[in-house]
């Protein structure tokens, strides 16, 4: 769904919310996908390059992962109010995106992508 025109100027495609997770907690989130295959997410630009090149993992909502959903709910409500999104507290899964060494997102510098879960 495209962003409404009046919100396009205010939209920050890559936002970082520092302090949400401690180092040990970040390790727990990353460990969730260890041993599972990634979904390669490449969006071609048309000239041989990519708009986005990353690996996606899905974090299902379970008793083991509920703490992650609870921790980020305030960010979801912020996005709802700031950008008119309709994220619901009952969301069933989260997308975890990994940018490897040679994978970049042109709107999100590598150092920010690597710290987005902080």
Structural overview:
31% of the residues lie in helices and 19% in strands. It is an alpha+beta fold. The protein has one domain. A three-stranded antiparallel β-sheet has the order 1-2-3, with no helix packed on it. The longest helix is centred in the middle third of the chain and has 18 residues, at 66-83. It starts with a helix and ends with a helix. The model is unreliable at 111-118 (pLDDT under 50).
Give the total of beta strands: 3
Side-by-side strand order of the widest sheet: 1-2-3
Task: Assess the beta-strand content as a share of residues.
Answer: 15-25%
What average pLDDT do the residues reach?
77
Q: TL;DR of this structure?
A:
With 118 residues, the protein is of the alpha+beta class. The chain has helices at residues 5-8, 23-31, 66-83, 110-115, and strands at residues 39-44, 50-60, 93-98. The protein has one domain (5-115).
Topology:
Layout: H1 5-8, H2 23-31, E1 39-44, E2 50-60, H3 66-83, E3 93-98, H4 110-115
Antiparallel strand pairs: 1-2, 2-3
Which key terms come to mind for this protein?
118 residues, alpha+beta, three-stranded antiparallel β-sheet, 4 helices, 31% helix, disordered C terminus
């Amino acid at each position: 769904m495209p962003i409404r025109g009046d919100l396009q100027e205010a939209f920050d495609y890559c936002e970082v919310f520092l302090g949400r997770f401690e180092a040990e907690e970040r390790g727990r989130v990353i460990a969730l996908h260890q041993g599972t295959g990634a979904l390669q997410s490449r969006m071609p630009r048309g000239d041989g390059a990519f708009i986005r090149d990353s690996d996606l993992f899905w974090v299902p909502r379970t008793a083991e992962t509920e703490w992650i959903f609870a921790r980020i709910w305030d960010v979801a409500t912020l996005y709802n109010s700031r950008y008119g999104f309709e994220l619901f507290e009952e969301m069933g899964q989260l997308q975890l995106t990994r940018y490897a060494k040679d994978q970049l997102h042109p709107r999100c510098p590598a150092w920010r992508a690597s710290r987005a879960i902080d």
